[in-house]
């Protein structure tokens, strides 16, 4: 089973590239972030035409997450995170994926706050959001089912996950508090699929549009797939569809994926 994460950076603007990627790679599940579409404007029919059911949690102009599943409509299990009722950002969507044999698989599409500029209210919100995510992750972990928390975490976990530590030193993505929040998830028992598969790092998932980031291969890893123990035990391989970042009018992120032997 292939489960992928893709920050599409505007689903309508990138639709040709998104459909192209889906048809070329055929993931069983695709978790999308930054769809930047209101619920009523989500183009579900485009995905139905190529065999994917969809659920989505939209927001006008920014944020927004979705989950696509091949040959089925994902069964929504949670929309948004508990703990901050005034938070109206569309950043978390969770679903159960049915399988013909064996246990269902739980997946979440996550778009964690960026947190810049830091210090400040946006960074404080990012850290609070990470605590709320950790609380939900603990509930899923206790269910002892295969689960994948997939998305754009806006955290660079290690120094070898960035082209230049110096260039990003003051960014919210690399602050000690951001990294500690991410590490707490790993200490709770979640497995960073790309992190354990490529311990030497140098695997980028994002290249900034500015300053020729793609042309110079100046990227970093902020798109992650965290696996619960029953999923980590079945990890076959994982990777980044880097080539899709280089196509015309592409997202600034590349799709990231895991394959599980279920």
Gap between N and C termini: 7 Å
Q: Helix content range of the residues, please?
A: 10-25%
Radius of gyration: 17 Å
Instruction: Give the SSE string.
Output: EHEHEEEEEHEHHEHEEEHEE
- How many individual β-strands? 14
CATH fold assignment: Deoxyribonuclease I, Chain A
Just name the CATH architecture.
4-Layer Sandwich
Q: What count of helical segments does DSSP give?
A: 7
Keywords: Hydrolase, Magnesium, Manganese, Metal-binding
GO molecular function: double-stranded DNA 3'-5' DNA exonuclease activity; metal ion binding
Protein name: Exodeoxyribonuclease III
InterPro entries: AP_endonuc_1, Endo/exonu/phosph_ase_sf, Endo/exonuclease/phosphatase, ExoIII-like
Explain this structure.
- By secondary structure, this protein is of the alpha+beta class.
- It has one domain (2-260): Endonuclease/exonuclease/phosphatase (Deoxyribonuclease I, Chain A).
- Helices cover 24% and strands 26% of the residues.
- It has helices at 15-25, 44-48, 121-142, 165-168, 176-187, 193-197, 229-232, and strands at 2-7, 29-33, 52-57, 65-70, 75-79, 92-97, 105-111, 147-152, 191-192, 206-207, 219-220, 223-227, 235-240, 256-260.
- The strands form three sheets. Strands 3-4-2-1-14-13 form a six-stranded mixed beta sheet. A six-stranded mixed beta sheet has the order 5-6-7-8-12-9. A two-stranded antiparallel ribbon has the order 10-11.
- Helix 3 runs parallel beside helix 5 (176-187).
- The termini are close together.
- The model has no long low-confidence stretch (mean pLDDT 97).
- Mg(2+) binds at residues 7, 34, 152, 154, 252-253.
- Keywords: Hydrolase, Magnesium, Manganese, Metal-binding.
């Amino acid at each position: 089973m292939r489960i992928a994460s893709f920050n599409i950076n505007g689903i309508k603007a990138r639709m040709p590239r998104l459909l192209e990627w889906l048809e070329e790679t055929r993931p069983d599940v695709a978790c999308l972030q930054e769809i930047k579409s209101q619920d009523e404007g989500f183009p579900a029919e485009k995905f139905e035409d190529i065999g994917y059911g969809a659920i989505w949690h939209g927001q006008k102009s920014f944020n927004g997450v979705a989950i696509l599943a091949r040959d089925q409509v994902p069964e929504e299990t949670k929309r948004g995170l508990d703990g901050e009722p005034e938070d109206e950002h569309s950043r978390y969507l969770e679903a159960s994926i049915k399988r013909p044999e064996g246990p269902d698989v739980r997946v979440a599409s996550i778009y964690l706050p960026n947190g810049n500029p830091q210090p400040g209210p946006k960074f404080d919100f990012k850290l609070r959001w990470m605590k709320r995510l950790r609380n939900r992750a603990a509930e899923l972990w206790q269910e002892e089912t295969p689960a994948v928390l997939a998305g754009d975490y806006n955290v660079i976990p290690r120094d070898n996950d960035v082209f230049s530590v110096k260039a990003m030193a003051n960014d919210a993505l690399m602050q000690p508090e951001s990294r500690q929040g991410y590490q707490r998830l790993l200490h709770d028992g979640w497995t960073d699929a790309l992190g354990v598969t490529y311990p030497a790092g140098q695997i980028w998932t994002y290249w900034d549009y500015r300053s020729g980031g793609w042309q110079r291969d100046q990227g970093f890893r902020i798109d992650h797939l965290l696996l619960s123990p029953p999923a980590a035990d079945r990890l076959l391989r994982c990777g980044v569809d880097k080539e899709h970042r280089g196509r015309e009018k592409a997202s600034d992120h590349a799709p990231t994926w895991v394959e599980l032997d279920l």
